[in-house]
Recover the amino acids of this structure.
């Protein structure tokens, strides 16, 4: 059964018709990969799905419910990683993750350290974010997504600024998320390396 | 490590939302904002320095007569407070919008109005309350008698709460723009004119030794109205600002 269903999404940006009748359905354990040239509306689509940009036409259903009718429930189930990492430069990695996760659930320090180990930035736990490289910050942001424990991940270029090992980390994180029945929507040109039945591809023009 | 990893991963998809979530989110957010502000205390103190300098410029520019200074003291104090609060609004949402943490607040599944109220409360604690604390210095420089200080400070407490909340609406709307200073002033200043009028009135009455209850009650009523209604407007403004 499809948990996330998008029907006929339309969005204009001024004179430009950015999203033109987008439809898709996503079931548990599936990942939707969105590709498209620069300016084709990948980020806009992700932001519209999350509810950051209001859609002009079309509907998004999450677990059979219209998301505009129950946005809080949908957002509780949603982990969003945009172009910006959503982390404060003046806090350390651990502080950032604690505050970000506390918005959603109770979190223990051990969980945060485990997540940082998993994304390969355990050494940076006590460093202010502003002192980390762009790639390290992205890894901390990925740890934030892991800690949300949300069933639906929406990731915008998750491997931006990451080295080749970081890119395979993204694949690993996605694979284990899907294996646990999670879902993901990823805008990226990088080959995700997921098996075909799990991967739904969509190209924007 | 593997056992711990599984502990993190296991409850993922079936998790139920917690009931005490909002209180935890609000407290966590307030603590985060306080910590960031303490690490950047220079930014936080700027509006305060501005207020002190502007208000103490008046005695220097005018003839040093106490009666003259007392006449202009209400205007100087309140216009100074208004401009300082406007300056401080830049700290409220702009950086959170730039680093993406504001998006995360909007998407965390908690009511945004409560979260922005918490943010604005911390902002008042860091910029409004310190202004009240240093106001006696500025008031002394303007020849305000010591007996009038309690009423002047009470008016400033009530007025600064309203200023922070109304200002937050403007800050939310303009946070995405690059040069938003004058636009923010044009949006916010007309809306806070009642605070200016009754705040300055209360101060003038206090200096003249008259009863200050009436303007203080009105300032209090405006503060209550702002605390109850403004968070919804701020949340709507932030959503528009995020688009």
């Amino acid at each position: 059964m499809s948990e996330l269903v998008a029907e006929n999404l339309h969005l204009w940006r001024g004179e430009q018709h950015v999203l033109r009748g987008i439809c898709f359905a996503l079931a548990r354990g599936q990942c939707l990969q969105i590709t498209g040239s620069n300016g084709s509306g990948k980020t806009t689509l992700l932001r519209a799905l999350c509810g950051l940009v209001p859609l002009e036409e079309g509907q998004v259903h999450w677990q059979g419910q219209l998301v505009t009718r129950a946005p809080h429930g949908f957002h509780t189930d949603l982990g969003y990683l945009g172009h910006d990492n959503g982390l404060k430069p003046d806090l350390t990695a651990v502080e950032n993750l604690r505050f970000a996760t506390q918005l959603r659930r109770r979190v223990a320090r051990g969980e945060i350290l485990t997540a940082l180990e998993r994304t390969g930035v355990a050494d940076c736990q006590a460093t202010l974010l502003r002192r980390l490289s762009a790639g390290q910050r992205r890894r901390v942001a990925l740890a934030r997504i892991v800690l949300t424990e949300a069933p639906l991940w929406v990731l915008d270029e998750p491997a931006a600024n990451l080295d080749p090992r970081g890119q395979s980390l993204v694949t690993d994180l996605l694979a284990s998320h899907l294996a646990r029945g999670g879902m993901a929507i990823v805008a990226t040109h990088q080959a995700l390396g997921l098996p075909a039945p799990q991967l739904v591809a969509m190209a924007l023009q | 490590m593997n056992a711990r990893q599984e502990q993190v991963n296991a409850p993922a998809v079936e998790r139920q939302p917690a009931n005490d979530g909002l209180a935890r989110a609000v407290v966590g957010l307030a603590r985060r904002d306080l910590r960031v502000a303490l690490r950047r205390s220079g930014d936080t103190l700027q509006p305060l320095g501005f207020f002190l300098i502007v208000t103490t410029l008046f005695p220097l520019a005018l003839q040093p007569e106490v009666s003259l200074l007392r006449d202009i003291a209400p205007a100087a104090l309140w216009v100074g407070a208004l401009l300082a609060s406007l300056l401080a609004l830049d700290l409220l949402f702009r950086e959170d919008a730039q680093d993406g943490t504001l998006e995360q607040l909007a998407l965390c599944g908690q009511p945004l109005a409560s979260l922005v109220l918490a943010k604005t409360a911390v902002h008042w604690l860091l910029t409004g309350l310190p202004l009240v604390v240093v106001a006696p210095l500025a008031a002394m420089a303007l020849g305000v008698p010591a007996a009038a200080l309690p009423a002047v400070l009470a008016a400033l407490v009530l007025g600064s709460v309203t200023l922070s909340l109304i200002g937050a609406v403007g800050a939310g709307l303009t946070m995405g723009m690059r040069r938003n200073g004058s636009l923010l002033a044009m949006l916010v200043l007309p809306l806070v004119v009642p605070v200016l009028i009754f705040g300055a009135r209360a101060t003038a009455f206090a200096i003249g030794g008259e009863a200050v209850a009436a303007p203080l009650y009105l300032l209090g009523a405006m503060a209550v109205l702002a605390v109850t209604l403004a968070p919804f407007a701020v949340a709507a403004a932030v959503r528009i600002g995020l688009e």
User: Anything to note?
Assistant: The radius of gyration of chain A is 17 Å. The mean pLDDT of chain A is 91. Residues 84-149 of chain A form one domain.
